[in-house]
Amino acid sequence: MKKLLLFLVLIFPLILCSQRPNTKRIAIPYLQPPSNPLNKNIESYFSSVVNNSTVFQPTSPNLKLKGYQRAESSNNADLDIKFVINNVSFSSNVFKEKYKKKVNDSTYVSAEGGRYSVEAVINFSEYVTDIKNNKNIISNEGILSNKSFVSSLIKNYGEAVKIHNSRKRRDAIGLYVQIANESINRFIVNVNNNYGYPFYYYYMPFARGRGRKHDYYDLAQAFNDFEKVREITKKAFSGNNPPRYGSFSAAMRDELSKKLDGCIEIWQNAINEYVPKKRKARIGDKIIDHLYLNLSAGYFLKGNWNKVYQTLSKVNLGKSEIKKASKFKSKVKELENRVSINEIL
User: Fold this and answer.
1) Between 305-312 and 285-302, two packed helices, what is the crossing angle to 10 degrees?
2) How far apart are CA 239 and CA 177, in angstroms?
3) Of 246, 226, 234, which is closest to residue 298 (Cα–Cα)?
4) CA dist 197 to 34, 132, 181, Å?
5) Comparing 312 with 110, which gets the higher pLDDT?
6) What is the distance, to the nearest Å, from the Cα of residue 92 to the centroid of all Cα atoms in its chain?
7) CB 121, CB 143: distance < 8 Å
8) Which of 88, 176, 262, 270 has its CA 20 to 30 A from that of 244?
9) Nearest CA to 145 among 175, 167, 165?
10) What torsion do the CA atoms of 294, 299, 302, 304 make, to the nearest 10 degrees?
11) pTM of the entire structure?
């Protein structure tokens, strides 16, 4: 017991004095330019889901091309986006399955039950037509997609047959809905990835600092200010059909600039305090990588690619942080390439 108390007395001061990053995630907002930009004269689009099957209806598909105005009809649109369900079909069967039937706590006998399976198939097509410039951009016809369902064990084979006959059509319709919704979602994500301007978030942990011997008010302030940057940007891109580059007022832009510059200054000043291999330092080995990550996020929102890469290259102590830096670098590189493609055209 004395040894245990001595150990706690020795280790407790280390816990109190050790400085910690005290991170919490913030969603970094960004606008993703298209990888295959449309012609400059494309301003509007019309989208639709054509269902040639009378068996089911997909659930409220929402085909939005982000960054463009939606027209009321294809006659008034520059671009036509269409997802067509050509036809649907399903097959099903019942199969026997042996299992151990419990007679009492110690006795089991062999018994025969059954399961049934249903496989549903949808044949669909995808189209994106540039009406304004009279050309087909996407024309993928006769795509097949399937899903299957297997029931739980039904302990009487005859009952399994009855349940199969009464439920197979309902189960097939459920599978149709799943296939259609997943296929439509993949289609519109692909269309936006190639041609749209979707608004996304990239999640990163931001250091606020923690330790009894030092004050981390500055890092907490930077955290709060960066969170405010996220809130302002989110508001600018809210609504059903925000402008391509967001609804920013002059006051919003001014506040964004001041908040970002303030965050960058705080993080850079904290980094300048860094004392390597000194456990009691306010800015030590446990927090420095996080500060570089946060600084890189600030430069990212300022659009300063070179500063982002320079800052990320200095993350070199923690394995987890090095991995985060590598992942963020890949995302930044992808966006830089997209911006370059759109500026060239």
Assistant:
1) 170
2) 27
3) 226
4) 6, 19, 22
5) 312
6) 35
7) no
8) 262
9) 175
10) -160
11) 0.83
